[in-house]
Amino acid sequence: MDCRVIGCRNCRWRLGYLCHARERAHDAGLGWICSAGAHCCRDYQCRSAGTTSVSGLFNQIARRSPLAKLRLIFKLGVLVSRLSKLVETMVDQEIRRKILTLLDQHRIMTVATLRPDGWPQATTVGYVNEGLTLYFLCGLDSQKAANLARDSRVSLTIDHDASQIMDIAGLSMAARAQAVTDAAEANRVLALLPQKYPQQVSPPGPMPTADQVRIFRLTPVVISVLDYSKGFGHTDLVTVSS
User: Fold this and answer.
1) Are residues 60 and 115 in the same domain?
2) What pairs with residue 239 in β-bridges?
3) pTM score, whole prediction
4) The domain containing residue 31 runs over which residues?
5) Is residue 211 located within the same domain as residue 107?
6) Which tens digit of pLDDT belongs to each residue from 43-68?
């Protein structure tokens, strides 16, 4: 039996643990003999009895020596820090799931590039995604391809019209664009594009080949998630680490 000694009322002996050699003494109701020689059987708490209450925890701190108090406060600080990081991780995972859901639910995005004169150019394009990485294609001689060859920065939005205001949801993203030059990656993207759509009544013509189009990979830098269900105009900003 492993019992925790809360402390001795007589000598404020610091928190300790009942060793196995003292089990019989504990079972006999003698409790722990503190360093001052006083019985502390009224002050120990068995782990099987449940967790210590908040008030009990503060009482434990109050009965300790100054050095023991500092040690316990430090341990509590570490615990709070770990709990805070755990909560942040859970929130980040929830937002990531929301982002992936939005990406999977849509097929069209508006992508903005910069023209030579600095004027933004917004264009509607189809896309596919592998996780948070997006792909789209355009003509070899298109203005978008020329813009991205000069400046790889891209801003994009993905959303849909909602009949109820509080159902509005979508995302915007700042990303870096890079032309796909690997043939295997390009062919994989071209194969994924038709899979975003249901069975077509009138099948389109053959898909272009990798050498007939320019395929761009978009790597996110910052993502803003818009979700009115969490509040009017509510957004969560996510910085994507490389």
Assistant:
1) no
2) 222
3) 0.62
4) 3-64
5) yes
6) 444 333 344 455 666 666 666 667 77
